[in-house]
Amino acid sequence: MSLNGRSQAVLKLLAEDYKPYDPATTDENIAQKLADCFVEIIRRVAGLIEPTVLEKQRLQHAEVDLRNRFGAYLLSEENHTCPFPGCGRTLTISGAGKSVDSFNVALIDKKKHQRSKIYWCSAHDVTRYIR
After folding, report:
1. Rounded Cα–Cα distance for residues 28 and 15 (Å)
2. How far apart are CA 131 and CA 129, in angstroms?
3. Which secondary-structure segment (H or E) carries 13?
4. What is the spatial distance between Cα 23 and Cα 100, in angstroms, rounded to a whole number?
5. At what angle do helices 8-18 and 30-45 cross, to 10 degrees?
6. Are 119 and 74 in contact (CB under 8 A)?
7. Could you report the per-residue pLDDT of 54-98, keeping only the tens digit for each?
8. Are 74 and 63 in contact (CB under 8 A)?
9. Torsion angles phi and psi, residue 30, rounded to 5
10. CB 62 within 8 A of CB 107
11. Which of 2, 41, 88, 96 minimizes the number of CB atoms within 10 Å of its CB?
């Protein structure tokens, strides 16, 4: 059953719950508002909508935190090389007597913190799970 087929009381409750996110929400337009919200979520997750500046900053801070907490383990797990099949690029760049780690880290499932981190070199958008 669609939202439009729900009782007026249900639509009113949904509209009241959604108003903090969109003050223009009413029981007459809540179905469309929620449909638009779900479409936007799907587009963002699929990468079809450019993240906002705040979202980019939040993601960058999260990646730095993951690199600081798990980077040494991730690097040693694959001998400082990208785990992407067939890649083998080094995850440490050396030059002028200095070495810098160069890889990305992401947390896939916050509930399964220990088994859901991934990492990859900058040439790839996919990689593998920590086992």
Report:
1. 9
2. 6
3. helix 8-18
4. 48
5. 50
6. yes
7. 888 888 888 888 888 888 888 888 788 887 778 888 888 888 888
8. no
9. -65, -35
10. yes
11. 96
Q: What residues does 101 pair with on adjacent strands?
A: 92
Sheet with 128-129: strands ordered across: 104-107, 117-120, 128-129
Q: Which of 37, 111, 48, 106 is nearest to 74 (CA)?
A: 106
Cα angle 123, 127, 129; round to 5: 155
Sequence-distant (6+) residues with CB within 8 A of 53 are none
What are φ and ψ of residue 93, in 5° steps?
Answer: -100, 130
Does the predicted TM-score (pTM) go above 0.90?
no
Band of the pLDDT at 127, cuts 50, 70, 90? very low
Pairing mode, strands 104-107 and 98-101:
unpaired
- The amino acid that residue 39 corresponds to is V
User: Which amino acid makes up residue 86?
Assistant: G
Dist. CA 26–CA 13, nearest whole Å: 10
DSSP three-state, residue 4:
helix
